[in-house]
UniProtKB/TrEMBL annotation:
Belongs to the LysR transcriptional regulatory family. The lineage of its organism: Bacteria, Pseudomonadati, Myxococcota, Myxococcia, Myxococcales. It comes from Corallococcus terminator. This is LysR family transcriptional regulator. Signal peptide: none annotated. SUPFAM superfamilies: Periplasmic binding protein-like II (SSF53850), Winged helix' DNA-binding domain (SSF46785). Residues 309-324 have a biased composition (Basic and acidic residues). One of its GO terms (biological process) is DNA-templated transcription. PROSITE patterns: HTH_LYSR (PS50931). Keywords: DNA-binding, Transcription, Transcription regulation. Pfam families: HTH_1 (PF00126), LysR_substrate (PF03466). It comes from the Bacteria. Residues 297-324 are annotated as: Disordered. GO terms for molecular function: DNA-binding transcription factor activity; sequence-specific DNA binding. Residues 5-62 form the HTH lysR-type domain.
Length: 324
């Protein structure tokens, strides 16, 4: 009689199928690569079939692997549901909670308020995972997510907490060097801080492609933190969340907020964790914290007025007109 595969071995199988190689699976499972290879060998021996072919581009699932993949995912879904239900009724606000968000949002919109949360909930250990990759709340890769797109999975609960407006900024030092910015001229004579790699697909990048078509590109980056620092250093014009104009006075808003680029901030968690005390405490803290910043997130500082000509300069302009 063939032995029933262990769930832990199926975990390794799924990680390899998703990652495409042993090293990616090891990173996902937080084990060493040798362990992943050994567990795969055990599973193949138990099933009496090869599950992956080695190719120059990585490990490719065999026909057998593709047939058992849906069943393995079903086992995973049930195992994760058991875990969520077991922790979902935890009535004490203590233990670890994993939150995922972009690096910029964590740095500017969460960390400055974290000391107050720690005073209220000293037994909760927050794990903050930053990045642009969307971690799965269904697979317990995170407990709470701060997202800019409402999730479609029916098992996830989403709570709208704020809106983020996007504004073109440049540093005052840059404007002093390069002069006024005219978007109707395609930013001719100016430089922009652009987007690189996957971020070229962002709406902000496409907006710059259209409205700054005649500008040169000073540098391209893949993160909001990088764009922010480049703008502060005076490298050029770029698009940034409105709140940065409030946090960094050296940044000058060049236009009002751009409605077509507005984003909504959602707090997302799995419905099975709705009654978990520590998850609920984190969600309430984030909702309160982000809510207090809603005004700064949605509205940029007032644009500086153009300086009027001095008395001497105005008189010179008047005399020039009279002499025409």
């Amino acid at each position: 009689m063939q032995a029933m595969p262990q769930w832990s071995d199926l975990q390794h199988f799924l990680a390899i199928a998703r990652g495409g190689n042993l090293s990616a699976a090891a990173r996902q499972l937080k084990v060493d690569q040798t362990t992943v290879g050994r567990r795969l060998a055990v599973l193949e021996r138990e099933l009496g079939a090869r599950l992956f072919d080695r190719t120059p581009s990585g490990l490719r699932p065999t026909a057998v692997a593709l047939r058992i993949l849906p069943a393995a995912e079903a086992v995973e879904a049930e195992a994760l549901r058991v875990e969520r239900l077991a922790s979902g009724e935890d009535l004490r606000p203590s233990g670890p909670v994993t939150v995922t968000a972009t690096d910029s949002f964590l740095v500017h919109n969460v960390l400055p308020w974290l000391a107050g949360f720690r005073e209220r909930h000293p037994e909760i250990e927050l794990h903050l995972l930053s990045g642009y990759e969307t971690l799965s709340l269904v697979r317990r890769e995170a407990d709470v997510a701060i997202r800019l797109v409402r999730p479609q999975e029916p098992s996830l609960r989403a709570r709208k907490v704020a809106a983020i407006s996007i504004v073109p900024f440049a540093s005052q030092a840059y404007l002093d060097r390069r002069g006024p910015v005219r978007f109707d001229a395609g930013l001719q004579g100016h430089a922009v801080v652009g987007y690189a790699q996957d971020s070229r697909r962002w709406p902000e990048s496409k907006w710059l492609d259209v409205h700054a078509a005649r500008a040169t590109v000073a540098v391209r980056l893949t993160s909001i933190l990088g764009l922010l620092q480049a703008a502060r250093e005076g490298l050029g014009v770029t698009l940034l969340p409105a709140i940065f104009g409030h946090l960094y006075p050296e940044l000058v808003p060049l236009r009002d907020v751009l409605p077509e680029l507005e984003r909504t901030v959602w707090l997302v968690f799995h419905e099975d964790l709705a009654n978990n005390a520590r998850v609920r405490a984190v969600v309430d803290f984030l909702a309160e914290t982000i809510g207090t910043q809603a005004g700064a997130l949605a509205k940029a500082p007032a644009r500086p007025r153009r300086k009027r000509a001095s008395g001497d300069a105005a008189r010179r302009v008047g005399k020039a007109r009279e002499s025409r």
